[in-house]
Amino acid sequence: MEKETQDGSFKRELGLLDGTMLVVGSMIGSGIFIVSADITRQVGSAGWLILIWVATALMTMIAAISYGELSAMFPKAGGQYVYLKEAYNKLIAFLYGWSLFAVIQTGTIAAVGVAFSKFAAYLYEPFSETNILWDIQTGVGNFSISAAQLVSIVTIVLLTYVNSRGVKNSKLLQTFLTIIKILSLLGLIVFGFMLGAKAEIWNANWTNVWDSRSFNLETMAWTPINGSLLLSGIAAAMVGSLFSSDAWNGVTFIAGEIKNPQRNVGLSLFLGTFIVSVIYILANLMYIAVLPLDQITTAKSDRVAVVAAQYIFGDAGTIIIAVMIMISTFACNNGLIMAGARVYYTMSKDGLFFKKAAKLNTADVPEWALWIQGIWASALCLTGKYGALLDFVVIIVLIFYILTIYGIFILRRKMPNAERPYKAFGYPVLPFLYIILATALSVALLYYKTDTCGWGVLIMLVGIPVYYITKRVEGPAEPANN
Q1: What are phi and psi of 222, to 5 degrees?
Q2: 3-class DSSP state for residue 7?
Q3: Can you tell me the mean pLDDT for 352-362?
């Protein structure tokens, strides 16, 4: 039977399992193994820690099932970029694509690549970030390249090459690694409860369950917080949990390669976010069962999972977690690399990105878009600035999630008779609830973390002049080669 194609270009080779594994694989990176330490420092109790993860899960799932309506209406490559263009205009859509290329997708790929190399150093010390391979004196200071940066670039180049050879290879790698990742995390949770959990630790952690406090790593002391300080702590804490739960929308970018996209994209979004949300909440309950709260708070380099694994498996725990995180981050980057290039492809078709990004190679994938993404992500690895960039990511991501979900309300008025194979669950209540929560969090982040989130908004706004320059210079792209 001949494969379905979209406009004679992309081949529809991905099924529901592939879509769900892309969602899960892209969401689970290194965050779940690390960010709970900082969340606990910000809010200070087991109750608040779990509440942050539950609130994140609910927000993520409401957003994902709301996107189901849009994905069914516009089952094309480009996903969220297309939804914004249809609901608003090309400028808003371009600002999303610009932010995705400048920071969101490439900055995340860089950070996940470096996380891979950091944990690879557990197994082979020369891969460490302390192993400086080149130290170059420049007019503005030292520029050094570490082994960790080089390893991260090698993984990005390798995965970009695999993806450039066709979607079939990358989907098999994604599904295989993600299934291993899910089983490994579930294994860690089960063994944690069976071998590492202690009733006295569990009970102690749930004492004074709603006492909100913040922890200072310099003084190693707790300070009670309430009112505006508590709001600030919640906003700061949710940066970590939301970032760990992001990238679920990547499956919408590759809708042009999914079989029966009207059904499977939305279902992949629901199943993927549900699986990850359950795993994340269970993992944090396991941390609370195994580790005293102070040890979660002060875990070395925030590696809570490493400390927990040492309690559960002894000295072998560090190696087990290192291998798990290497598999997790490798699969995460494969999903991010696969999905991101499809947005630049669609932007190019609209005359808003380099013309070459609109070309498909003989394997029917946007090879040029993949490589330009890989080159910029590699550059971000070399600058050493990816950590700061990630602080900017969450505010930009939230702004575009708010705009996209509000787009459902706009499109219901703008296109009342359009075919909607699936309608947003709980409309208008749940989508409106998400908009309120995400807006409140965005305002809190801009108020309490102006130094980082303000820069994030600025990076996004720089896209406005870039949009008009791009329109004038590039003009409409030529039709893609088939």
Answers
A1: -90, 145
A2: coil
A3: 91
CA separation for the pair 322, 328 (Å, rounded): 10
Token digits for 450? 């102006």
Q: Which of 107-111, 141-145, 150-154, 277-281 has the weakest average pLDDT?
A: 141-145
Q: What amino acid is encoded at 359 in this protein?
A: K
How many other CB atoms are found less than 10 A from the CB of residue 163?
A: 29
Q: Does residue 41 contact residue 219 with C-beta atoms inside 8 Å?
A: no
What secondary structure does DSSP assign to 284-301, as a single string?
HHHHHHHS-HHHHHT-GG
Residue type, 228: S
Are the C-beta atoms of residues 24 and 182 closer than 8 Å to each other?
Answer: yes
The position carrying tokens 């529809």 is 12
Token pair recorded at residue 54: 């539950």
User: Which DSSP symbol is given to 215?
Assistant: E
Name the residue with higher pLDDT: 143 or 134.
134
- pLDDT attached to residue 217: 87
Buried b / exposed e along 385-421 (16+ C-beta atoms within 10 A):
ebeebbbbbbbbbbbbbbbbbbbbbebbeeeeeeebe
The owner of tokens 């957003």 is: 63
What are residue 138's phi and psi, to 5 degrees?
-125, 170
| Global pTM value | 0.88
